[in-house]
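Translate structure to sequence.
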């Protein structure tokens, strides 16, 4: 009989992520005494300490770290097996994960989500976001099932299918108060290196991170999403490229000023992508739905620049 159960591994995973037995119990809907007993029984059966108890907080021992590292592969394999069995039985996945490039908001797919639930209300949807190479990595690592708006060509080696969704132009923009706004000629490396760039962090965990429009040695302020980058540039904290629809209203109102650069960044194609061999009915539905003409334009409607600025209220 095996001394390590999937149930015990699930509890270890929750404790490690949440930081305490009580928090893990709340996530798994179990009383703390059950969590504590399962861990103690596992430690007794294995003859090793899995956690160092530090008051209410706990920390994995080296042996516990190794156990959980490999155990997470088993948990993922078990989850995949459950999904495959149910998919074979019904044709529909129990869960479908969809990752959007950070340029877009999942609310832009509101009509698609409502239409999907009318035909597949038993398939859970999980939406996430990623940036640049990180989206492709998430697909190949099986952390997501479908990419929407993935930037640039996918990694070599294949294993996935993709459909081009179109191209979004980018503009180089600064706030009117930024020193670069006063320069009346195309900006070259000499001008740009003297100022800070605002960049979105690549969400890749393993593959080399990708940067867009960043010079070697450039001072950079890195943020976690496109909206933060947009806000930082509006505040005059740095410069950078923004999707034209994202910046459209700010450019029209004068909150941002578009500048020309000597070296233009090439436009990237955005893709819809999924792994080979994944043929569930839910994935097929979403691929067919999002590969229709006009999807990219609908996604852009969630960008701030596509909403006209509200008129200022004046007191009488």
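Result:
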């Amino acid at each position: 009989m095996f001394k390590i159960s999937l149930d015990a591994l699930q509890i270890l995973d929750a404790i490690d992520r949440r930081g305490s037995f009580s928090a893990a119990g709340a996530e798994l809907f179990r009383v703390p005494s059950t969590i504590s007993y399962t861990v103690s029984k596992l430690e007794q059966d294995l003859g090793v300490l899995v956690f160092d108890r530090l008051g209410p907080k706990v920390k994995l021992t080296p042996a516990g770290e190794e156990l959980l590292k490999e155990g997470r592969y088993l948990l993922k394999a078990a989850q995949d097996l459950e999904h495959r069995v149910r998919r074979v039985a019904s044709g529909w996945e129990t869960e479908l994960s969809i990752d959007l490039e950070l340029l877009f908001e999942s609310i832009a797919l509101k009509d698609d989500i409502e239409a999907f639930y009318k035909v597949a209300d038993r398939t859970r949807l999980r939406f996430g976001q990623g940036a640049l190479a990180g989206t492709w990595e998430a697909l190949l690592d099986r952390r997501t099932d479908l990419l929407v708006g993935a930037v640039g060509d996918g990694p070599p080696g294949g294993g996935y299918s993709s459909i081009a969704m179109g191209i979004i132009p980018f503009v180089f923009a600064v706030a009117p108060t930024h020193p670069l706004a006063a320069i009346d000629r195309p900006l070259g490396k000499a001008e740009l290196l003297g100022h800070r760039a605002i960049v979105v962090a690549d969400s890749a965990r393993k593959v080399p991170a990708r940067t867009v429009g960043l010079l070697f040695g450039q001072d950079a302020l890195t943020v976690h999403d496109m909206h933060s980058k947009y806000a930082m540039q509006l505040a005059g904290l740095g410069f950078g490229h923004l999707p034209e629809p994202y910046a459209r209203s700010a450019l029209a109102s004068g909150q941002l000023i578009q500048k020309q650069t000597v070296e233009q960044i090439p436009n990237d194609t955005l893709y819809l992508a999924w792994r080979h061999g994944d043929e569930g009915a839910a994935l097929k539905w979403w691929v067919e739905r999002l590969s229709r003409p006009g999807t990219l334009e609908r996604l852009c409607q969630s960008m701030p620049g596509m909403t006209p600025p509200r008129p200022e209220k004046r007191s009488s």
